Amino acid sequence: MFASVCNASALPFAVDGNKLPTLADVVEKIEHSIVNISTATRRDHQSGNSALDQFRDQLRDYFEGDEFFNRHFEFRTPDRPRRRRAVNLGSGVIIDGKQGHILTNNHLLTDSTEVEITLLDGRSAIAEIIGTDPDMDLALLKVDLTNLVEIELGNSDELRVGDFVLALGNNYGLSSTVTSGIVSALGRSGLGIEQYEEYIQTDAAINPGSSGGALVNLRGEVVGINTAILAPAGGNVGIAFAIPINTAASVANQLIQYGRVKRGVLGVHFQPLTQEMAEAFQLERIEGVLINKVLPGSAAEHAGMKEGDILIGVNGVKVTDGSQLRTMIALIRVGEAVNVEFIRKGEVLFGSGWIGDNSQKTIAGVDLSRRLEGVVFQNSPSSESGVLVASVERDSRGWRAGIREGDVVVEVNQQSVADVDDFSYAIDDPDELIVLRINRQDEFYFLAPQ
Questions:
Q1: Under CATH, which architecture does the 1-7+21-45+82-260 domain have?
Q2: Which of 135, 137, 203, 407 is flagged as catalytic?
Q3: What's the pLDDT at 65?
Q4: What is the SS3 assignment for 108-130?
Q5: DSSP-based three-state secondary structure for 243
Q6: In a 3-state reduction of DSSP, which class is residue 315?
Q7: Residue 1 above 70 pLDDT?
Q8: Rounded distance, CA 209 to CA 223, Å?
Q9: N- to C-terminal Cα distance for the chain?
């Protein structure tokens, strides 16, 4: 294995006796903390009636019971369809050498039956999945190996646009590839990549295979987990995204403690603040979101918020839009204090409350739309995204639309929903037409309540 640095041309070691700047020391410090991740899935292969299939069946009959041939040729049996092995490649970052914890992207593990990690020194091991967070695209693995080199965690909150960064990963399966760039933007959201978004944007090249790798500063501290690229033509165009390490570390801590992530809720329904709304509320500029409902007993109610307030800040951070707000709240731990800043009748007010657990959150469908009368929704208690139908009154409008208890709503008007907040946010007008995509016992249906 080797480390490669993508450069357009070679530079001399020194000029006029002065040693040229180099990033080699930084790379050498962290390269052993980046691992190659290989995941395997087994997929049913539909057998046909070709001569090859018939020949395989004859071989199966002849060698029936032979362990060697059954294992290496994967013969079909009436109760065991022939399966093919698919392999995905990615990267991971060792964040705790003693415990063997490795942080990576969740999308690398989708439907995987086996996860293998390979170190730069050539050692490999099968990894255990400690937990996953599909909504943030993060996952935590554990391996039983000694002398692991953990990376030093930086502080992504201290990043500034223009900071130099390095991206390390296994681009296209090329181990320990290093690319360089700058921080192009911070707090990118609303991209539609994941349910919760607050990305670091960089022009450091991130290609297939480097997902789950590290974005590091020039001190060799990890500041982000590489996760996505914007590639309209299928190649790198200098726009890539990483999950801030402060966010990733918070998720990892919850996965270690609970095996899942407990999302926090503020307890409000809100809508975007338009120019017309800003003028109606006599605001000097468009900032924040408009609160249209405050849930009883919620952190927002304890903070003194009411319908019609304009929420402009959470814990000292300005609220720019609904997507950013949902991500901020989701990252606050359940039970922690939250400080809010809001505008009411032109006056700036402050309040505080305690973040609730979204797994217990419910909402009556009629509060969102008359077409959902008789239905009660709640956040799904499983790790899967979506909104669970907790109950449906027989002969109600929701019942007549075909909604049934146990259904999981995954889309509203072609917009993915992860929880009740997403669900209510997707319905702007209580009188508008609604198209729901539901999961019912792993079968998907579209419903249009009338």
A1: Beta Barrel (2.40)
A2: 137
A3: 47
A4: HHCCCCEEEEECCCCCEEECEEE
A5: strand
A6: coil
A7: no
A8: 19
A9: 62
The fraction of the chain above a pLDDT of 90, given in percent, is: 28
Tell me how far CA of residue 45 lies from CA of 76, 82, 83, 443, in angstroms: 10, 6, 5, 21
- Name the pLDDT band for 8 (thresholds 50, 70, 90): very low
Residues 404-447 have pLDDT tens digits of: 988 999 888 888 887 777 787 778 777 788 889 998 888 888 99
Q: For tokens 């991740």, name the residue.
A: 37
Has 385 been annotated as catalytic? no
Phi, psi angles (nearest 5°) of residue 201: -100, 135
- Which sign does the torsion angle of CA 203, 204, 206, 207 carry? positive
Of 32, 107, 135, 323, the catalytic one is: 107
**Rounded to whole angstroms, how far apart are CA atoms 196 and 325?**
10
- pLDDT value for 288: 87
Among residues 383, 385, 401, 384, which one has the least CA distance to residue 393?
A: 401
Give yes or no: 211 in active site.
yes
CA dist., res. 332 & res. 330, Å (int): 6
Please state the pTM of the whole predicted model.
0.66
**Fold topology of 264-358:** Pdz3 Domain (2.30.42)
For β-strands 264-265 and 4-5, DSSP reports them as: unpaired
Report the pLDDT value the prediction gives residue 5, as an integer from 0 to 100.
Answer: 46
Catalytic residue among 211, 298, 380, 424: 211
| In the predicted structure, residue 2 carries a pLDDT above the cut 80 | no
Chain position carrying tokens 């480390």: 3
Query: β-strand 443-447 against 436-440: which pairing, if any?
Result: antiparallel
What residue segments make up the domains of the chain, in order of their start?
A: 1-7+21-45+82-260, 46-81, 264-358, 361-447
Q: Are strands 177-188 and 4-5 parallel, antiparallel or unpaired?
A: parallel
| Percent of the chain that is helix, strand, coil (3-state, to 5) | 20, 35, 45
Greatest extent of the chain over all pairs of C-alpha atoms, in Å: 87
Classify domain 361-447 by CATH architecture.
Answer: Roll (2.30)
* Equal fold, 264-358 vs 361-447: yes
| Whether residue 357 lies in the annotated active site | no
